[in-house]
Amino acid sequence: MRFAFIEENEHAFQVTALCKTFGVSRSGYYTWKERPVSETTQKNETLLSEIEVIHDQFNQIYGSPRMHDELLDRGHSCCVNTVAKLMQQNELRAKTKKKFIATTNSNHGRPVAENLLNRRFDLPQQPNEVWVSDITYLWTDQGWVYLAAVVDLFTRKVVGWSLHNSMTTDLVEEALLNAIRLERPACGLMIHSDRGSQYASARYQQLLKDHGMICSMSRKGNCWDNAPMESFFATLKKELTHHERYRNRQEVRRSLFEYIETFYNRIRKHSALGYKSPIQFEQTL
């Protein structure tokens, strides 16, 4: 460690003074400096170079577990502890999450469904058995816009989404219709949401009946009942929207399309899927 420190600082201080400060000889330092680079050092340097590439390529969102899995996919033999150490030493960190508030308005007189899902997030055994849905908000220079999304609980794929200037029934209907057009699920699919007024509306409930869907709703004020959706929105904000400035809804839509359809569904490794992307996992079925 002393020789390494001297090497890092010899451009700023005299080697003689540094050696004297650390109680080592100049000849010993130069002998150490001329040593051949070890195989481990060479491997770590190569690994670090690849880590930096991945860190930039994926917009600084991968922590050491996903980084390790991506390195294995690219043919690098390494352990997750080595990856974590190299990232820590070189200050390569995943983007941090910012707090956000709930958008649910459950103070209405409309009928609500039972919590049939009841946090059984491992309930589905194949795609299109259980979907979860929710709404969140995103800021633009022109004001708030609202995103509704539908996620398949088995594949964790975003199967439908919609973006509007207001938080209306149209918002959640459009997201669900987009999911239906894409997946064409059979009758009997369970769709879980909170008990917000949009999901409890007569129009939305009729849409579920028209497609033979079973409605499930979270308990009042309990975000954990819809944890997979909360997790998706937290990931979206941590990895994308908290780091962007959008001038208008069109910019948000383009950004969301690129993130959801190109990256999240097809490329991003999901820990619950054995570090496969939703579509990669779907293709293994």
What does this structure look like?
With 285 residues, the chain is α/β, with parallel strands linked by helices. It has two domains: 2-89, no CATH class; 130-283, Nucleotidyltransferase, domain 5 (2-Layer Sandwich). The longest helix is centred in the first third of the chain and has 19 residues, at 39-57. The protein has helices at 2-9, 15-22, 26-33, 39-57, 64-73, 80-89, 169-183, 197-200, 202-210, 227-239, 249-264, 278-283; strands spanning 130-140, 143-152, 158-164, 190-193, 214-217. The protein is elongated, with a radius of gyration of 25 Å. A hairpin with a 2-residue loop joins strand 1 and strand 2 (143-152). It is built from twelve helices and five strands. Helix content is 44%, strand content 13%. The chain has a five-stranded mixed β-sheet with strand order 3-2-1-4-5, with helices on both faces. Helix 1 packs antiparallel against helix 2 and helix 4 (39-57) packs across helix 6.
Percent range for β-strand residues: 5-15%
Return the CATH architecture of the largest domain: 2-Layer Sandwich
Strand order of the largest sheet: 3-2-1-4-5
CATH superfamily of the largest domain: Ribonuclease H-like superfamily/Ribonuclease H
Counting H and I runs of at least 4 residues, what is the number of helices?
12
Outline the low-pLDDT stretches. 98-102
List the helices and strands and how they pair.
Blueprint: H1 2-9, H2 15-22, H3 26-33, H4 39-57, H5 64-73, H6 80-89, E1 130-140, E2 143-152, E3 158-164, H7 169-183, E4 190-193, H8 197-200, H9 202-210, E5 214-217, H10 227-239, H11 249-264, H12 278-283
Parallel strand pairs: 1-4, 4-5
Antiparallel strand pairs: 1-2, 2-3
